[in-house]
Structure formats: C-alpha cells, structure tokens
C-alpha cells in the first residue's frame, strides 16, 4: 500500500509543479484561441448551461462568447503572475446573462496545456470549477 501512496504523491507533485512553472507569457500563448466548456461545477454540475457556446480568448485580452440562439457576449481575460498554491491565475470578466456572470472570476490554473484548461475558483467557501477544451 505504501508504494501506491508514494506514486500518487509523486504524480500530484508533478502536476502542480508544471502549473507553477507557467510564466504569464506561456499562459497567454496557451489560452489564446477558441474553446468550449466541457465541465462546470458550482456546488453541483452545471455543464449543460454552457452547451452550444464557444469562447474565443483573443490576444490582447478580449474574450468573445458565442451561442447560435443566445447571442454574442464580449468581455476580457488576463492572467496574474501572483503565486497561489496552484500558481498563476486566469481572470475572466464577462457579462450579459447568468452563464457569463458565473464565469467571471479569478480562476486558479490547475491544468493548462495546448488542448485543455482546468480552472478552480480561489474562493475557499464553496467549490467552483470549470474545464475548457480547445476547438
């Protein structure tokens, strides 16, 4: 049982370290492009609220969310180099409807690579998480 525990700890450390090592420029390079929400949790699974949306994170900090029947919403994004226990943050600010309001937050970057982003709210009083997949 001990070797299994050590493997799990090593894997967790490797995942966290890779995100701690992301520079603001690396975050910008990875986030720029079109994405869709594959998971959204705000005290319960609310992923279905984002079905049909595409999110384009443009260079320069503009964020455009589009839905064929709900319209287009424009906001902004930025990244913050301040250290948290998980490393850099992605700050999303967008409004227009309830779904967009839920995305507006300071998100800790849990996983970020060329095809996937996993973000967690830095608010410790409730659980909120969003996952994006690159289109």
Model description:
With 135 residues, this protein is of the alpha+beta class. The protein has one domain: Beta Barrel (Lipocalin), CATH 2.40.128.280. It is built from 3 helices and 8 strands, in the order ααβββββαβββ. The chain has helices spanning 2-20, 24-31, 98-103; strands at residues 33-42, 54-57, 62-67, 71-80, 89-93, 105-112, 116-121, 128-134. It has an 8-stranded antiparallel β-barrel with strand order 1-2-3-4-5-6-7-8. It is globular and about 40 Å long. The chain starts with a helix and ends with a strand.
Give the CA-CA distance, first to last residue. Answer: 40 Å
Number of strands: 8
CATH architecture level-2 label: Beta Barrel
- Helix proportion: 10-25%
How many domains make up the coordinates? 1
Secondary-structure-derived class:
alpha+beta
Largest sheet: 8 strands, antiparallel, barrel
Give the strand order of the largest sheet, numbering strands 1, 2, ... along the chain.
1-2-3-4-5-6-7-8
Strand content: 35-45%
Mean pLDDT: 85
CATH class: Mainly Beta
Shape: globular
Number of helical segments with 4 or more residues: 3
């Amino acid at each position: 049982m001990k070797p299994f525990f050590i493997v799990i700890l090593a894997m967790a450390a490797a995942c966290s370290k890779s995100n701690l090592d992301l520079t603001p420029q690396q975050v910008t390079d990875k986030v720029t492009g079109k994405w869709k929400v594959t998971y959204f949790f705000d005290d319960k699974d609310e992923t279905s609220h984002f079905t049909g949306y595409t999110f384009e994170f443009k260079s320069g900090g503009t964020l455009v969310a589009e839905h064929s029947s709900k319209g287009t919403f424009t906001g902004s994004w930025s990244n913050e180099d301040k250290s948290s226990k998980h490393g850099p943050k992605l700050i999303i600010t967008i409004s227009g409807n309830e779904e967009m309001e839920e995305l507006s937050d300071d998100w800790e970057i849990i996983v970020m690579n060329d095809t996937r982003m996993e973000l967690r709210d830095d608010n410790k009083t409730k659980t909120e998480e969003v996952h994006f997949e690159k289109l």
